[in-house]
Amino acid sequence: MDESLVDEVRERIRKLLDSGQLDEAARALLELHPADRAEAFAAADEDVRARLLPLLGNEATAELLAELPSHLAAETSEPMQADVLSDVLDRMDPDEAADLLGDLPPVRAALVLGEMDRAEDVLPLLHHEDESAGGLMTTAFVAVRRQMTAAEAIDFLRQIGPETETPYYLYVIDRNGKLIGNVGLRDLIVASPDASVETFMDRDVVSVLAGTDQEEVARMFVRYDLAALPVVDAIGVLLGVITYDDVIEVLEEEATEDVLNMGGIEAGTIADRPYWSLSIAQVVRSRFVWLLALFVAETLTGTVLRHFENTLKAVVSLSFFIPLLIGTGGNAGSQTVASIIRALALDEVEPRDLISVLVRELGVGALLGVLLGAVAYGRVLFWGLDSSMALVVAVTILCVCIWANTVGSLVPIVADVVGIDPAVISAPLITTLVDATGLLIYFSVAVLVLHPAS
Amino acid sequence: MDESLVDEVRERIRKLLDSGQLDEAARALLELHPADRAEAFAAADEDVRARLLPLLGNEATAELLAELPSHLAAETSEPMQADVLSDVLDRMDPDEAADLLGDLPPVRAALVLGEMDRAEDVLPLLHHEDESAGGLMTTAFVAVRRQMTAAEAIDFLRQIGPETETPYYLYVIDRNGKLIGNVGLRDLIVASPDASVETFMDRDVVSVLAGTDQEEVARMFVRYDLAALPVVDAIGVLLGVITYDDVIEVLEEEATEDVLNMGGIEAGTIADRPYWSLSIAQVVRSRFVWLLALFVAETLTGTVLRHFENTLKAVVSLSFFIPLLIGTGGNAGSQTVASIIRALALDEVEPRDLISVLVRELGVGALLGVLLGAVAYGRVLFWGLDSSMALVVAVTILCVCIWANTVGSLVPIVADVVGIDPAVISAPLITTLVDATGLLIYFSVAVLVLHPAS
């Protein structure tokens, strides 16, 4: 179904819901892809959702809960009877069922789990951290023993095939459950029917420990172009498989976390939970510490200005350009830090390139400083101030641009060297670092050029 | 091979290269996964790379060129003879060969293409924009006619199988080449051998036009959990297939583009080309326009200050807190804009939530303002200034936090409504918007509380 048709159906559903024709709306919902269905469902009011849900049937409800954002899935499942919910969970992929169970109150989760037919697939997944390889994996994979022939493996797949989420590979294990190889479906088809799996399996399988962080998992998928990644325990026993679709979700999340960091909010805390799931007090807590730290650092600017109090009294027009100068320094620094963070993330720049990066960014800063300094010179004259003041502002702009580009290149690279993710270096941090030194430069130049009475 | 082993081999290669044992180094390189091999190769000096390349053989060179960053792949292929390079390109996936050919000088590209055996697979890929669906797709897919039986299709796969990059689906086309369905390998295995493909194919295939932007393609993969996406022309003829691994790369690129935007560099221009591939002049050009726009906007702060020149002369200590106040406003605004951009990207917030977002962010701003205002009050007293000055600063902090949170929520949501990607709203933009108004608030409060002689 193409995009315009999807839009049409969604519009129809909205109208049906508005006019209270829930049966019709439910039927139209079932025409949509589960992802589109979940979006249309989420857009409805809470009471409409509650009345709509029983009309969908357990299979469609399972698809719906898998697609909804986690807080909405938990909320939607709340009014469901335990036996209905357990049947719905049985129809979901084990990793998605485990995610939902993890969001329920523990007593209810235990009750529902007790009524599930496939509880044994889901139970092992509940012990892993959400953001680890174990938390991403599913237990719905196909494992075969090495002696099995290609024909037997194909027969085996015919019997169990439709249940599994990872149809691209069979995993080959030894008698202790240790992973010893994998077989692509294509290899299975191409192999001679009598050949045993171990004769054509790929022995050089990339695998990952269950405790590995999800960012590392995502990096391995990107690096090695993987479709699926087996998860093992410390002695190599196969525990589960992570598929590319879960990793695409991780990449989406990580990308938006980088934006949080860049804006000066520490990601990896409650700050990256869904927007509406946090109370105002929680949001304030997640932003306050960082804001306070920047605030305290920023009071340094007051110290600098107090130091030059007499200069300011003598030439009060010096204060007109304070926001312009520190603003420009902050902006130039933010641009530099953003391009260095990007270059580090894409492996275009490495810590050992520090000197070449500095040379380059100094050049960029000097050029930008000359251009903006010229503009500033004109602007100051235009305001009717004298040319020595224009010179002070222009020279300061030049120095501040060079200094901001230096700080903006140094800080993320040094962070990388000492093992801090450069993506946590925010634009506000750079701005704050540059502010006080920018003022020092400004007043030093002013004292040199203007020789104010003190 | 696990991570520590990979590190060991890389260390060994570095030592072998340093001591000039190129044959040994080439052998060790071949032990590595192509992705690791490319990294080790890229880390060597230019002249070492030139001498190492002929020792690798054409197959490994093909893998290497596919994994290297595009500018380095083009550079590496430069000294190769046209007939060697054409043989290497024949061993690469058609989409990767096309990417490399696109980076060569046109005359050389034509020469090399003319010597390739599989030129007809690569040629159609050269006409598409790099960042479109056509630019991402490969022509190495398997298409079958609807009358083919499952057994015939499996036989067909046995013959051509190993050459193709998209082993997960067969695409079913009609006599005009139009896409009418697809068949998963699993369905093929599970189907009765005599059944014709059209009886068990999936007719509801998601496909995309060749001109579709790569960001939209990535969104479809994320939304519909796709492993592969067929690309068609305007009348539905199957042109190629995009696989999940190409999309994972797009997601990585887009994520780092968002960081550029947030730092105040317009992505989607030359600014997102590889860091070292740009000259300093190009970097300056990509940053200057935006920096100049912010600079001009920031001169507004000077106008505000000139307007309050007499107030400043009367109470020169007012100027001590200018950087602190506008810095705090900018930081609070950056935090807000970052969390709203994230919430919009993850569909947690939609434009119609504008009022609820504003109410929420006003609450957050007010609370943060009260907390920081209290800290500021103490800080001003600590500097030995009087309590009316402390009051002015504290009240301004409160107002500025509320105002910054309002601007930080409004701007990205309004951008989304008028069809601008909210991710281009940068922290510097918000900072600049808040600066001049922050000063207006400050001096208005000061005039009210301090009644300075004017």
How would you sum up this structure, described in words?
Two copies of one chain form a homodimer. By secondary structure, the first copy, chain A, is mostly helical. Chain A folds into three domains: 3-127, MgtE N-terminal fold (Alpha Horseshoe); 143-244, CBS-domain (Roll), CATH 3.10.580; 275-450, SLC41 divalent cation transporters, integral membrane domain (Tetracycline Repressor, domain 2). Helices cover 64% and strands 6% of the residues of chain A. Chain A has helices at 3-18, 22-31, 34-43, 46-52, 58-67, 70-77, 82-90, 94-103, 106-115, 119-122, 133-136, 150-160, 185-190, 197-200, 214-224, 244-262, 280-307, 309-314, 322-345, 354-382, 387-417, 427-450; strands spanning 143-145, 169-173, 179-184, 208-209, 228-232, 238-243. In chain A, the strands form two sheets. A three-stranded mixed beta sheet of chain A has the order 1-2-3. Chain A has a three-stranded mixed beta sheet with strand order 4-5-6. In chain A, helix 15 links the parallel strand 4 and strand 5. The radius of gyration of chain A is 30 Å and the shape is elongated. The termini of chain A are far apart. The mean pLDDT of chain A is 85. At the A-B interface, helix 12, helix 13, helix 15, helix 16 and helix 17 of A face helix 12, helix 13, helix 15, helix 16 and helix 17 of B.
